[in-house]
Amino acid sequence: MSDQPMHQCDLCGHPEAESLIRLGTGRAMRSDRVVVAADLDKSRCCCCGLVRSTTLPDDTTLRSYYGDEYTVAASDYVFWTADGPLLRSEIFCSWLSEAMGVFRWEKAKRCLEVGAGAGALMEQFVRRFPHLTVEGVELGPEAKVARERGFTVRQSPVEEEPEGQFDIVYCIAVLEHVRSPSAFLAELRKRLRPGGLLYLSQPTQDVPSYDLFFVDHLYHFGTDHLRAYARKCGFRELGFVVGHRLMPNFSLHLWQAEDLADDFAWHGPPGRTDCAAAAQRISNDLHRLDETLADLQRRGRVVATFGLNEVFGLARAYSNLGTYPLCCGLSDDPAAGPAGLSFPVLRPEACSDHGVEDVLLTVNAIYYPQLIRRLTPLGVAVHPVLT
Ligand SMILES: [Zn+2]
């Protein structure tokens, strides 16, 4: 991989950074949970505390992160809530339009989504605000899908959009993927008419977040960092919200285009984030998992894992689970497991038929109590992976 070393901080310009996480398993997890051949290496700026990939991927590597198989943008994610299923696009449409004044959307005429995917969120905004002209840009092949569905989505970089035309620009889960957030935000500002609004939402490091372990997330922002980016890139912060009830590690920021500041410098101590604590906690959990796996292998136990989503991806990328001979995966929806597994996926109740003796819990820790109650009567030993 011919990554270029990153010489200075994109936000404050400081030349020095300290290592935060270095995992050299040769496997790394992407934000769509696919495990790719790479090492994970993140650093923290010694001045402003912004966490970033230690090296910036070159174009070829970056493209390899977002090939046709990159699935996050292509489909709409469903959240299973107590009130029934909710689409990710519905949730973001409500959050963006309601959190800081619906009047802003009622007043707007022309609006641009940057990173529009297949148009799922555009569809929600068009339905909710029929007076609004919503256009999009998308670098990936989903742009074609969006056009086939009747949306105006151009497959080109935002730099090619007309300047000074849009009342609102919005951008969901994109900023953490770009090589220079400063340059990208400056381009977004140019698209806005004077006084136009920018809505940004992406993972926040104000609260614990796994996304530190996503190889394709190049930056990890706390609120302090985003506020400084606003100042640096010619915006006034109108408001922000940390955490949505269904997406606690996402934040939403509303900025208004204003005159560009003449000079920008980071003042004061590093911005606050949970990055160092999260890195330590998850690294310890993965180390403990390696010890558990070594013990199980030594004792010749038959091992399955429950849960094949994010925590499984994390463990498969960054611990010896990636090469461990699992007997099977367990899931309540065996057909929905990830592609390319080397073992069968069964319902948990079938595990005794396969002689399973031990089950790793590769799911969010909030599910542990109910899973332990459910799996223990099946006669298996249960091993939580996260603390
Ligand atoms: Zn910095």
What does this structure look like?
- With 387 residues, the chain is an alpha/beta fold.
- The protein folds into three domains: 4-65; 78-272, Vaccinia Virus protein VP39 (Rossmann fold, 3-Layer(aba) Sandwich); 277-384, Rossmann fold, CATH 3.40.50.20.
- It has ten helices and 22 strands.
- It has a seven-stranded mixed beta sheet with strand order 12-11-10-13-14-17-16, with helices on both faces. A five-stranded parallel beta sheet has the order 20-19-18-21-22, with helices on one face. The protein has a four-stranded antiparallel beta sheet with strand order 2-5-6-15, with helices on one face.
- Helix 2 (88-98) crosses helix 4 (120-128).
- It is globular, with a radius of gyration of 22 Å.
- The protein starts with a strand and ends with a strand.
- The mean pLDDT is 91.
- The site of zinc ion has 8 residues, from loops.
- Zinc ion is lined by residues 9, 11-12, 14, 45, 47-48, 50.
Describe this protein with a few key phrases:
387 residues; alpha/beta; Rossmann fold; seven-stranded mixed β-sheet; five-stranded parallel β-sheet; 26% helix; globular; binds zinc ion
